[in-house]
Structures are given as C-alpha cells and as structure tokens.
Amino acid sequence: MKYPEVLGIDQVLAQLDTFDAIIDARSPAEFAQDHLPGAINAPVLDDEQRIRVGTMYKQVGAFEAKKLGAALVAKNIARHIEELWIAKPREWRPLVYCWRGGNRSGAMAHILAKIGWPVVQLEGGYKAFRQEVNAALEQAPALTFRVVCGTTGSGKSRLLETLAAQGAQVLDLEQLAAHRGSVLGHLPSQAQPSQKAFETRTWDVLRRFDRTRTVFVEAESKKVGNLRVPAALMDTMRASDCIALTLPRAERVKLLMADYAHFLHSPESLNAQLEHLTQLHGKEKIAQWQAMSQAGQMAELVDELLAQHYDPAYLRSIDRNFSRYAGAQPLELADIGEAAFAAAARSLI
To answer: Which residues of the chain are in CATH 3.40.50 domains?
Structure first.
C-alpha cells in the first residue's frame, strides 16, 4: 500500500471509529466552527498565518505566497510531530483532513507518510464531510422514538440521564446544544456550539444507535436556545409515541431551584432574561417578577413563572405539536429523589 492513502468520504465514514487519531489541519477558527467527531486541531497554518499568506497571494503573487506558506507549514508540522506524535509507534494510523482542496492536509499527510506511518487523507476534506452530514439529516431517521413530554421542571432531562445510565438509548438534544431549552435555559458556564457543530453532534449520536432498539428523547421546540433542530428529525419526533411525565408543582420548584442555582446568586442576570417575556406578560408583571428576584423570593418567583408562563405555554403547544400526545403513557413521579427517577426509568426500559 502506498501512503498517504487518499480515501473518499464514504470509505472514511465506514471506518471513522477505527483511526488512531483524526487530525484537522485547518486553522483554529475553522476548527472551532465545526470538525469531524473526535478530531484534534493541529493547524498547518494558524489564523494569523493564514491571513498573511492569503494577503500576500492577492497583493504580491502566488509564488511569493507559496514560499512563505511552505516555510510556515514546515515549521508547524515539525512542531506538531515533536509535541504530539514523536512517541507514536510505526502502526499508528491517523486520518488527516483540511477544508477541501487538500493542500494543507496533503502537506501534513505527505510528511507523516514519509516517516513511515500508514496515514489516510480525506479526499474533499471537511466540505465533503459537511455535505454528508447535511444529506443524512435531511432524511427522517430510521429509528423508533419515545418522546418524554412534561411541563417545565417535571424532570425530563433527569429522566433521560437516568435512562442513559441504565443502558437505554438516549438522544439528549439539550445536552448537545448546551442549553436547557427555555428562555432561562442559557448555561453560564458553557457557550452554545455553532449550528454546524450542533448538527454534527446530533448526526454522530444518531449514527451510533441500534435501529432495533427504542430511542428516548425529550419533547423540544424547533429551536434549542439559538440552535435549530434538523427538520426531518423534528418531524419524526413529533409523530412518535409519547410519555406524559408529571411531578407535583412543589417538587418542580425544588428541581428548578437546583438546576438554575446560578440565578440565585445573580438576580441581575435573571432579570435580564425576564425582559424577554415583556411582550407576553407586559411591563408591570415583569417589573413585579424582577422585584421578587431582587428580594430573593426565588421559590415564590419560580412558582409564579410555572403557573403563569410555562404551564399555559406548554398546554397550548403540546397537543398541537405532538400528534400522539393524547395517547401518551402516563408516568408520575412523587418527588425528585434518585430512587424515583431510577424506578421510572426501569419501568420504561
């Protein structure tokens, strides 16, 4: 076999999980937007260098730009070899890719192959991968879903976590999107991924499922925070069998107080989010809720938000959006203890 071995996207995806490393040779900014699952970033040109070379190409000429680029690429690849791969054995088999044309990944793959490693280069690069993800997500997934429905704070996400811990197949879109799904769902410790990265994460989870087994998923709107759920997936979820999860409102308040503890220490942040509800509830009501937040009346505020905002919105939307909700399997939780969630998960599995 002659290396580097150049393979198309279909051949690469068929063995994606078998590579010893997946190396993204693009710049850090490109990598941050999205990348192949499990990839590491080993740029042959960093963001600033890429701009320098591109500017020289336009303003001076291709030959001068290629000389500068070659010097920078050689230095960067040498550093990566020394810092990342110097101890790798002869049989170490990495996959290398860049954006599309193959110049950046080709340079890296050529050097790694000359060392003696059986390196594979992805023909068409990230662009070919992105086209594959787009095509896959445009199709309805050939999976059987059961959709966990329930009002805000009823424990849907915790139930999914418990189901996953007990070995069930779970698609947790809020986890993939780094958002809890409501107007207050932003996670202060974690930014949402890009739309492309969210889609790649979703595609990666879906491709690993056993089609003969049920997949549990939470009822979601079309957007999770700023991110859109793929339309074909959304349509399939909305036509799937449902589970109606219920929890006493006092317990829902406890759960939300725990899950949104960051707001307890930052009423200013909570009040900024409450501003988004002004059009629905009016300035007077929002000012009242903001005053409760400032006064530390969080339990009372959460209870009012459930009664006056979240529960009415849920009841308006659930029957309209999930066609099988009327025949949903009821599942009642008495409290938010681990034992209650464990028993509920066992009953579903």
So the answer is: 141-348
Ramachandran category for residue 294: left, alpha or beta (phi over 0 → left; psi -120 to 50 → alpha): alpha
The CATH code of domain 5-135 reads 3.40.250.10
Active site residue 242: no
pLDDT in tens, 243-294: 999 999 999 999 998 887 777 677 788 888 888 899 889 998 988 988 888 8
**Which is it for strands 120-122 and 5-7: parallel, antiparallel or unpaired?**
parallel
Determine whether domain 141-348 maps to CATH 3.40.50. yes
C-alpha–C-alpha distance, residues 335 and 155, integer Å: 10
Segment 326-330 shows an average pLDDT of 96
Q: Return the structure tokens found at 102.
A: 């193959």
Q: Which of 237, 233, 302 is nearest to 267 (CA)?
A: 302
Which part of the chain has CATH 3.40.250.10? Answer: 5-135
Stretch (H or E) spanning 223: strand 223-224
Give SS3 for 63. helix
What is the C-alpha separation between 62 and 320, in angstroms, rounded?
59
- β-strands 227-228, 223-224: how paired? antiparallel
Is residue 27 classed as helix, strand or coil in its secondary structure?
Answer: coil
Read off the tokens for 155.
Answer: 């424990």
Q: Which helix (H) or strand (E) holds 290?
A: helix 278-294
* Catalytic-labelled residue, pool 39, 44, 56, 98: 98
